[in-house]
Amino acid sequence: MQAILLVGGFGTRLRPLTLTTPKQMLPVLHRPMIEHVVCALGAHGVDRVVLALGYHDEAFRAAYPDGRCAGVDLSWVVEPEPLDTAGAIRFAYTESGMESSEGTFLVANGDVITDLDVGEMLQLHRTSRAEATIHLIEVEDPSRYGVVVTDSDGRVGAFVEKPQPPAPSNWINAGTYLMEPSVIGRIDAGRRVSVEREIFPAVAEDRSLWALRRNTYWIDAGTPQTYLRAQLDLLDGLSSAGVSSAGVSSERVLSGVSSAGVSPAGVPAGVSPEASIDPAAVIERSVVMAGAVVGTDSVVRGSAVHAGAVIEPGAVVLDSVVGSGATVGRGARVTDGTLVGARFEVAPGVTLSGARVPGAA
Questions:
Q1: Mean pLDDT of 211-234
Q2: Is the dihedral of CA 100, 183, 217, 225 positive or negative?
Q3: Phi and psi of 134, rounded to 5°?
Q4: How many CB atoms lie within 10 A of CB 10?
Q5: What CA–CA distance (Å, rounded) separates 19 from 182?
Q6: 218-220 and 112-114 strand pairing
Q7: Are 220 and 13 in contact (CB under 8 A)?
Q8: For all residues of the chain together, what is the average pLDDT?
Q9: Own/partner pairs for 142-146, CB < 8 Å, 24+ apart?
Q10: Cα–Cα distance between 297 and 320 in angstroms, integer?
Q11: Mean pLDDT over residues 351-357, rounded?
């Protein structure tokens, strides 16, 4: 099976982390987010992934110059202008040569990490002779999602994008689709077309849209809260999706000592062996990536510290993300979902809570 991965968005909800890096290239547990997504698809029989690129497309090409990602063949197309979700699907399908295969294909949002069994979804798709089948997940607040109403067999009766309360259902579009080539014929070329607002409602009207309702592990890692939670969920083993943290030792490299002085046990698995951690630092349930430096008497808890970042002595990082090459100054406090952008410096002694630094221009 072939798949189209939608990765062309601007990642505005994760700024400033995405000012220079596309969202799906941000690291999640020591690997780019996209590798977790592609690896999970490959585990369910997808052997080729086409990236529908837009924002900072060069970052993807530079990362995978040999056309392989997580063991799966990779190719890409770049939209000349934003075409919305359905427009991007059509463009990727036609420009990548997928139309020559004439078979069922998969579409997924590039910021969704899930344990979905694509094989089970494909079985429903085929037995129901659906034109399109979508994965649904149940949430408490469906107001910011596409809400889907189905009958007992799974046929979709209504597809309502981001409804006003009360919503007709708590089952939402989870961002993984199986489609027949006929869906492409429904999408106008050369204009912005939304698969959620135009195409799925039209397929549902023709009684050809089906849904698999499965409360498997699922997370849209596109917000500050969910991006951090995805890291910690994978660290905690709550999901089997994506690549493992193989190569991440349970030992820490301690600054200022030889390899003989490496702590032998009791160190969180989320700490890269290529990070430099002072013996007097406290790290709890966090991801600390290669080349990061955590100084004496500092505390990192429930957080992600990207590659090459520096947490100076006495600094505290709680439930936050420190971008690549950034510095949290001596005695500073970064808490409550703060995002520190790449190579930015938080001044010594400063307290930040729920901040984004640097902020919008």
A1: 92
A2: positive
A3: -125, 150
A4: 15
A5: 37
A6: antiparallel
A7: no
A8: 87
A9: 142/167, 142/169, 142/170, 142/171, 142/172, 143/167, 145/172, 145/173, 146/172, 146/173, 146/196, 146/200
A10: 18
A11: 94
CATH architecture of 259-357: 3 Solenoid (2.160)
Residues 6 or more apart in contact with residue 129 via CB below 8 angstroms: none
Token pair 């700490």: residue: 271
Q: What does R_g of the chain's alpha carbons equal in angstroms?
A: 22
Per-residue confidence at 152, pLDDT binned at 50, 70, 90?
confident
User: Cis peptide leading into 165, omega within 30 of 0?
Assistant: no
Q: CB atoms < 10 A from the CB of 265, how many?
A: 6
- CATH 3.90.550.10 boundaries in the chain: 2-236
Helices and strands (H and E) in the chain: how many: 7, 29
Backbone phi and psi for residue 54, each to the nearest 5 degrees, phi listed first: -155, -85
Contact 303, 339 (CB under 8 A): no
H/E stretch holding 90 reads helix 84-95
Which pLDDT does position 249 carry in this prediction? Answer: 32
CA distance 269 to 247: 10
Lookup: tokens for 114: 């899930």
Q: Which two tokens stand for residue 25?
A: 């290239």
* pLDDT above 70 coverage of the chain, percent: 91
| Cα separation, 85 vs 82, whole angstroms | 9
Specify the CATH number of the domain 2-236: 3.90.550.10
Residues of the chain with CATH 2.160.10.10: 259-357
pTM for this predicted structure: 0.86
pLDDT tens digit sequence for 169-218: 899 999 999 999 999 999 999 899 999 889 999 999 999 999 999 999 99
Tell me the two tokens of residue 32. 């780019």
